[in-house]
Each structure stands twice: as C-alpha cells, then as structure tokens.
Amino acid sequence: MIQSLHEQVGAALRAREAELIELHRALVRIPTVNRGDGASAEETRLADAGADYLKRAGLSSMIAEGAPGRGNLLAEIGLSGPLERGERSMLWMSHSDVVPAGDESAWTHPPFSAALEGGRIWGRGANDCKMLVAAQLFALAGLARLGLPRAGQLRLAVGADEEVGGQWGFGWLRQAHTDFLKTDLALCEGGGSALGLFEDGRPVVSVGSGEKGRYDVIFRARGEGGHASTPWGKNNPLITLTGLIARIHQWQPRATPTSPVFEALAGLLDMPGAITEANLAETLARVDRELPRLSNSLRGQSRMTLTPTVLHCGDKANALPTEAVLTCDARLLPGQTRADLDQAIEQVMEGIPGVEVTVRITTDPSVSEFDEGLRGMFERATARALGAAVRITPVWCVGATDAHFVRAVGTPVYGYQLVHPDADPTRLSIHCIDESIEARMLLPCALSLAHLAVEFLEGEQ
After folding, report:
1. pLDDT tens readout for residues 303-354
2. d(Cα 332, Cα 340) in Å, to the nearest integer?
3. Are 169 and 220 in the same domain?
4. 316 and 188 both lie in a single domain
5. Strand ranges for 29-85 from DSSP E
6. C-beta neighbour count of 415 within 10 angstroms
7. Which domain holds residue 423?
8. Do residues 29 and 139 both lie within one domain?
9. Do residues 49 and 133 lie in contact, with contact meaning Cβ atoms separated by under 8 Å?
10. Terminal Cα-to-Cα distance of the chain (whole angstroms)
C-alpha cells in the first residue's frame, strides 16, 4: 500500500522519538543564560550543537554571529535558488537564549541538568524556548531524510538574544540576512496551547496572529533635597511618584473584545451571542470562575496595560532624595498607537505636577492576517499530530517574541508551538523555578511542524 507524504512523515518521526528527547535534553544542558549584558548568553555554543545535529542528518547550515559568541543558526532545505511562480517558502523561527535560573538551590533538579524524571524534562529553557528549537531541528532533519520538501524551500533560524529584545538575534538578522527572512509564511513561538473544549467537544488550540507592542514609560520627579529629620515644606520626589504609582494602579483602561480570541471564547462558554464591549466585563468574570487559567491572557488581549516595574530613588536614609525615577512597562494592542499611550499617560498624571515623562519604544504592535484557509491548514496539521480533531483560533500574544522583526520585512508570522491538550496546564510556566515539560510533548510539536510544511510547500492536504 502506497503511503501518502503525511503518513511517511508521521511514521518516520515517530520511529525516532527517543532521538528527539535526547536532542532536547542536550540543548537544555547548554547554559545559554542571557543576563542582558551583551555577551553572557554565548548562543554560539547551542548553534554549534544544532549544526552538528543537522550535519549528522546530512544537512549543511551556517552560524551567523551578530557579535562574538552571539550565534544565529541558519539552515535551508528544498529547492535551491530563486523560486518559480507557484513555489512557496516557509521559515521556522525559535531562539536559543534563556533567562537566568535565579536561586539554583531552590530547584528540584539543577537547572541545567536536563533531568528526566516523572516523565518530565527539567531545566531552564526546557519550555522557553528549547522545546521548539529541538522540535524544529528534529522535524527539519526528518523531512530531509525523506527527500522533502520536493517543492519550495523550508528555512530554519534559531536566533540569539530574544530574552532581552533580539538585538543580536532577529534584530540583527533583519539587517544582515534580510532575504533569508523573506518567506511566504513563518512560524514562531507565541501560540499552540489549548484553551479548552469547543462547544462540539474539540480542543481549541491557539495560533498567534498578532502581538502587543511594548514601550518603556519613564516618569521623573525632582526635589531640592534636605535633611530627613525636617521634611516639612520640602518637595520629596519619592512622595510624588508613590502618588503616581497609586494613580496608575487605579487607572482603568478601555477594554474591548477586538482580539480574535473572543470569537472562540463565545464557543468555549457556549454563549448564545457574540462577546461585545458591553458584556465583556461580565464575560471575563465568568472566565475567572470557569476557565481561570485563561483569565490573565484574556484581560491582556482586551486592553492596554501600564505597569510600574522599577523605582530608583535616594542615596541615604537620612537625606531627602533629589530625584526619583519610575519605569513602567506599557503594552499596546494591535490597532493602538503612540497617541493612545500619550492619552493614557495624561490621564494618570492629571493633577500631579512636576513630573517629566520619557517614552522609549521597544516595538510597535504587529499583526498578520488570518483567514479560513490558514485555519484549515493548522487544524489538519494539528489533528494529524494529535490523532484527534481540533478547532484553531487566532490569538494575540500579550508578551513579546521575535515575530515583529520578521513581520517588518513583509513575512506573515504565526505563533505556533503545539502543546498537547492533555498536558498539565498548571506546570507549563516559563521563567520560573522548576521549569519543565512532559517529554511526550516534544513529538506532537515536531509532527505538527512537519505536517504544516508538507501541506504548505508540497500542496498535499
């Protein structure tokens, strides 16, 4: 019996699942810790390991360093040279750096041991983002062993520096390797998790079609100083900014169900009608009761946020400070602009004189169009990976990924790192002590990527 391409791919990758698990553990053991100092992560070490893995599968790759030690792994399979009309290209994106592990003595297993215990792989980066790196490397090698893709091009970019903004990763690649990032479709982190069960019983799985923008808003207040024992009649900038912090905490931004996730949410809650601005607050209160793990994400997808995060003030306990500086993290929805942020700043500062404001942009909001054709493709690939039908819904990422760099060169980017719907949702956290994943999560993630590539590039549904 002749197998379809999808059947061949599924069988080939499933036969090597143990290899995928060991690849993932090897990547977690490499301490690519990004402390934001410009040099600490040493992502080239992981890029070398990835290149060696691909070489053993007969694939060539290159390591492009934006700075010494800050290596980006690039690889490509499929047709070489310029593509002809009707031939398509796909880019898989991930990142190799991880956040610091914090107090390592607080971990159940050492954070870079990649211990395999209780069916889980433990370690910093086990989820964010070395699960996706391992799945992409494994799926790329598996497709290449089968001589796929026969049509189009499949590219891989494992970037550096994502955890502190991507300067030496996709930010640098956007300038130095622009053409490599220009493809017909790209897949990144920022989606792929199960939200719950749809009204017909199918799991609802997210695909990130947009991302909030991020800005630093810096408030600065000044005073004349003086001895702390005689504070009367003195302008204490710390008091000024603590009043501002209270105002920010009380601020209520406009909440709107503009994110496409709210269409799916109506089905998850079996609501008789659509979610509107008028019933949004009531709906979110219901989510708190019935789908509590989605609560924060849905609130983030419905409003701008302005969150105090850093306060610097004073030099000595017995001296009034001459300056206080408050930094806030601001996140804007797709469709919102700097003018919307300026209006919010004016609202929280009303009646608080003598405060200077500086706004520093990290990235504007970005979004990629999502249509029914894309929904069908993601649903078929996910169903093949899981062995069960699913419902795909687009969502907006409330954090930040490298997607905006690649959207900026004209490539539509979608967040998709499939997490098995049966995975324990209480143990999927990132940037936390005891970060870990279930080892069985790796294969469905890799399978879904491979099936997407087969359909998108080969045209086989």
Report:
1. 999 999 999 999 999 999 999 999 999 999 999 999 999 999 999 999 999 9
2. 8
3. no
4. no
5. 61-65, 71-78
6. 25
7. 5-192+365-385+395-458
8. yes
9. no
10. 19
**171 and 239 in one domain?**
no
Q: Of 86, 139, 183, 207, which Cα lies nearest the Cα of 458?
A: 86
Token pair 């949702």 is at which residue? Answer: 425
Taking the C-alpha atoms of residue 208 and residue 213, their distance in angstroms, rounded to an integer, is 14
| pLDDT value, residue 254 | 96
Q: How far apart are CA 250 and CA 296, in angstroms?
A: 17
Q: Which residues are bridge partners to 310 per DSSP?
A: 327
- pTM comes to 0.94
The answer to whether 393 and 195 have CB atoms below 8 angstroms apart is: yes
What are 47-102's pLDDT values in tens digits?
Answer: 999 999 999 999 999 999 999 999 999 999 999 888 888 899 999 999 999 999 99
Total structural domains in the chain? Answer: 2
Residue of 454, 441, 439, 446 whose CA lies nearest to 380 = 454
What is the C-alpha separation between 442 and 131, in angstroms, rounded?
A: 7
Task: Evaluate whether residue 453 is within a structural domain.
Answer: yes
- Three-state DSSP at 220 gives strand
DSSP-derived letter for residue 202 is P
